Amino acid sequence: MQKIVSDSKIMMGKPVISETRITVELILEKLAAGETPEQILEAHPRLSYEGIKAALAFAAQALKLIQNWYYYRPNLLGIPSQPPGIVPLVFSPPQVQQ
């Protein structure tokens, strides 16, 4: 089973799939650009479906941490707290090259 690891000596400490130099960021960017898991696996033979699922799970957990920090952080910045479920994050999906 592949898992996510981070080592400051590999890819500048970015989260990568274990035993590879394939970053979570790369997998997410490729999926967002419309590549299928099969295309990603073909381009990266050392990667597995489990690695792609691990990258997605890692991204989901990271987003939860960001949202929890935003909601539960002390009001040190003078920003009023938002009701649960309303997090004013702004996200623009990448433009897909045609």
Short précis:
The chain is mainly α.
Give the arrangement of secondary structure elements:
Layout: E1 4-5, E2 16-17, H1 24-32, H2 37-43, H3 49-72
Antiparallel strand pairs: 1-2
The radius of gyration computed from the alpha-carbon positions, rounded to a whole number of angstroms, is 16 Å
Instruction: Report the strand count.
Output: 2
Question: Any idea of the CATH topology?
Answer: Arc Repressor Mutant, subunit A
Structural class: mainly alpha
| Alpha-carbon distance between the two ends | 35 Å
Query: Roughly what is the average pLDDT, rounded to an integer?
Result: 82
| Outline | globular
What would you give as the CATH superfamily?
Answer: Winged helix-like DNA-binding domain superfamily/Winged helix DNA-binding domain
Helical content class: 40-55%
Question: How are helices and strands ordered from N to C?
Answer: EEHHH
CATH class: Mainly Alpha
Pfam families: DUF433 (PF04255)
Protein name: DUF433 domain-containing protein
InterPro entries: DUF433, Homeodomain-like_sf, WH-like_DNA-bd_sf
Give structural notes.
It comes from Nostoc flagelliforme FACHB-838. It is a single chain. With 98 residues, the chain is mainly alpha-helical. It has helices spanning 24-32, 37-43, 49-72, and strands spanning 4-5, 16-17. The model has no long low-confidence stretch (mean pLDDT 82). Helix 1 (24-32) packs across helix 3. It has one domain (4-72): Winged helix-like DNA-binding domain superfamily/Winged helix DNA-binding domain (Arc Repressor Mutant, subunit A, Orthogonal Bundle), CATH 1.10.10.
